[in-house]
Please model this.
Amino acid sequence: QVELVESGGGVVQPGGSLRLSCAASGNITNAYAMTWYRQAPGKQRELVASITGGGSTIYGSSVQGRFTISRDTAKNTVYLQMNSLKLEDTATYYCKKSGPVDSWGQGTQVTVSS
Model:
């Protein structure tokens, strides 16, 4: 099973930017999708962005146009570039690798606050 470690979270003002990283202990093969989810207190976990092995991407409607997902297979890392952050982007962000058995990271906290 692949181990995933997220990093890059923090506190940022509205309108600011952050880049999250998800580092995998093993190879991120091009056969499986990598997905960022987020969960705010009292809310359900929601899909933020996903990238397939072929490089196709999808985004949640609330982040479309502001967030960008990318992957660097040489570094076994997936990134989430978050721009124009809003108060409602505050959440714990999780990385998931799809596969015969899904792998999840422990999460990284993003707080958008003025």
Observations:
- Residues 11 and 23 are 21 Å apart (CA to CA).
- The longest strand covers residues 18-24.
- The chain has a mean pLDDT of 93.
- The chain is about 0% helix and 50% strand.
